[in-house]
Write a structure and sequence with these properties.
Layout: H1 3-15, H2 19-33, H3 39-42, H4 53-67, H5 69-74, H6 83-102, H7 106-123, H8 132-141, H9 148-160, H10 170-191, H11 197-217, H12 219-224, H13 232-237, H14 242-248, H15 255-276, H16 285-289, H17 292-295
Helix pairs in contact: 1-4, 4-6, 4-8, 6-7, 6-8, 6-10, 7-9, 9-10, 10-11, 11-15
GO biological process, one term: carotenoid biosynthetic process
Catalytic activity: 2 (2E,6E,10E)-geranylgeranyl diphosphate = 15-cis-phytoene + 2 diphosphate
Keywords: Carotenoid biosynthesis
């Protein structure tokens, strides 16, 4: 079995473990390898021999292709010498997004988020854990300048959403988009060496639109899991309750109007982002062409 296949299988297995299996796994690691008794640090030692950048790159490409296909297609828009860094950024987001569904309970999810906080600190110190996404991010930093702040904002937002906090207003939903999707775009602008305030403004608005559209596209699935991400003030405006949506589904009176109002906010962000495009250099277009998928949502 190849090293890449071995690592992929182990990574998937760890990601899908229950809390009991998770604890047993790390106890075994401690006994075999005399690893620190801190399970968060132990997460970084799945396969110590994975050192080759090409192995980490293949893992990240496969991860993005499987779980973020739209942005996988966008990779072709980036210069060849920067595509590995692009995959590292997108794979980082996929890894974090998968924690919500794979963690058996809130504590395990929090531990995995903390692992990534520590990993980002170590990556920026030049000492990445033996995890393919972390290794590829470390390699990316050797070729381009990226800000740790944006990675940490993504982690913090993903962490905050582990226990399904309600969005009280559309502003909360916009913050979700800003702290995840916009930060990913900021990193991609940095990747291309783009320093342009207009580009930053466009990325902010596109990210907010992306966050809103992501929630709306996933709405049927989220409802099936008894998770409600429509803003509370919008639901109150149209006299909709969570219980009614969970019970009756899309036939609830007023739901169409509520969804339309939220979608309109996303559309407005896209229009605003478009107004900045004439003042943004051509080299930044790979970052913004990914928003084409949002247009199809309306």
């Amino acid at each position: 079995m190849s090293l890449v296949k071995l690592f992929s299988r182990r990574s998937i297995r760890v990601a899908s473990m229950t809390d009991k299996q998770f604890g047993k796994y790390y106890n075994n690691l401690n006994n075999k390898h005399h690893i620190t008794n801190n399970p968060i640090k132990s997460l970084s030692t799945s396969v110590n021999q994975l050192e080759k950048p090409e192995s980490a790159l293949k893992y990240c490409i496969d991860l993005v292709r499987k779980h973020d296909y739209e942005n996988y297609l966008c990779s072709a828009l980036y210069p060849k010498n920067l595509q590995h860094a692009y995959y590292a950024i997108r794979a980082f987001n996929v890894e974090l997004a998968m924690i919500r569904e794979s963690a058996s309970n809130l504590l395990i999810g929090k531990m995995r988020m903390q692992f990534w906080r520590e990993s980002i600190d170590n990556i920026f110190k030049g000492s990445p854990p033996h995890q393919p996404v972390a290794l590829l991010l470390n390699s990316a930093l050797e070729h381009c300048k990226l800000s740790s702040l944006f990675f940490k904002r993504i982690i913090n937002e993903r962490d905050a959403n582990l226990d399904n906090p309600p969005y009280m207003s559309i502003k909360d939903l916009e913050s979700y988009g800003e702290n995840i999707a916009s930060c990913l775009l900021y990193l991609q602008l940095e990747l291309l060496g783009i320093k342009n305030i207009q580009a930053d403004h466009a990325a902010s608005h596109i990210g907010k639109a992306t966050g809103i559209v992501t929630i709306l596209r996933a709405f049927p699935y989220l409802v099936s899991k008894k998770r409600m991400y429509l803003p509370a003030d919008t639901m109150a405006k149209f006299k909709i309750s969570e219980e009614a949506i969970f019970r009756e589904g899309p036939t609830v009176k007023g739901l169409d109007d509520a969804v339309f109002e939220v979608a309109t906010i996303a559309h407005d962000h896209l229009l605003t982002a478009r107004s900045f495009l004439p003042d943004i250099q051509r080299e930044a277009m790979p970052v913004f062409l990914s928003s084409v998928i949002l247009i199809d949502a309306f």
